[in-house]
Amino acid sequence: VDMHGTRLQAYALIWRSENASTRGDSHEATSFANVAVGLVERPNVSPATKARIYAQLAHAEMARSQPESSLKWADKALDMVAKDGHRMVFQEWNLLADKMRVMGMIEGHRDESLANARQLTEFTRANLGDTSISYARALNVLGSALQYAGHVADGLAARERGVAIAEKVLAPDDPNVWALRGDYAMSLENAGRNEEARRIFAAELAILD
C-alpha cells in the first residue's frame, strides 16, 4: 500500500511537472520532477515508474538549457526502460529523440547527434514499422541531423521520404503532414532550392486561408 501511494504521489508530481512545462515554466517543471525523484529512488520502485520520472526530468532540464544534466537523466531513464524489458516503446522513442537534441546542444558531442538520429530511425523501423507516422517523424529528425553534419542531399532525401510516408497514412490536411512538409521546405530553402520551397509554403498558406 505504501509503495502504491508513493507511486501515485510521484505520478501526481510528474503531471504537475508536465503542466509546468506546457506553460513554459521550466524551473517549476524541474522542481516538481526533482521531488518525484526523491520519492522513487528506492530499490523496490519499478523500473517503469523510475523511467517516467527520469524522462520528465531530462525533458525539463533540456527546456532549461541544461544539456549535461538533461543527458544524465535521459541515460538513467533509458537504463530503466531496458530493465523494464523495453516495453515502453513510445517512452523510449521520446527519450532517444530528446537525447539526440541534447547532444546537439553540447560542444564536442554534436557529431554524436547524427549517430543518435540513425539509432532513433532504426529503433522506430524495428518497433513501430517503416510505414508509421513515427517513422516519418524519425526520418524528419534524421534529415535535420544529416544536413547539420553537411550531408545536404541525404538530409533532403530523408525528409522527402518522411513526407511521402505521412501523406500515405494521414489525411492531406493533417497538421502532422503540414509540419513535415514545412520542415522539408525549409531544408529545400537552405539548399538553395527556393522555388520548390516557395511552392510548398504557398500551398500551406492556401490551406490556412
Topology:
Blueprint: H1 2-23, H2 26-40, H3 47-63, H4 67-83, H5 89-105, H6 110-128, H7 133-148, H8 152-169, H9 175-190, H10 194-208
Helix pairs in contact: 1-2, 1-3, 2-3, 3-4, 3-5, 4-5, 5-6, 6-7, 7-8, 7-9, 8-9, 9-10
Alpha carbon gyration radius: 19 Å
In the predicted model, the low-confidence regions spanning at least 5 consecutive residues are: none
Strand content: under 5%
Instruction: Let me know the largest β-sheet.
Output: none
Question: Per the principal axes of the C-alpha atoms, what is the gross shape?
Answer: elongated
Number of H- or I-type helical stretches:
10
Number of strands: 0
Question: In short, what is this structure?
Answer:
It is built from ten helices and no strands.
Word description of this protein:
The protein has 209 residues and is an all-alpha fold. Helices cover 82% and strands 0% of the residues. It has ten helices and no strands. Helix 4 runs antiparallel to helix 5. It is elongated, with a radius of gyration of 19 Å. The model has no long low-confidence stretch (mean pLDDT 87).
Key features of this structure:
209 residues, mainly alpha
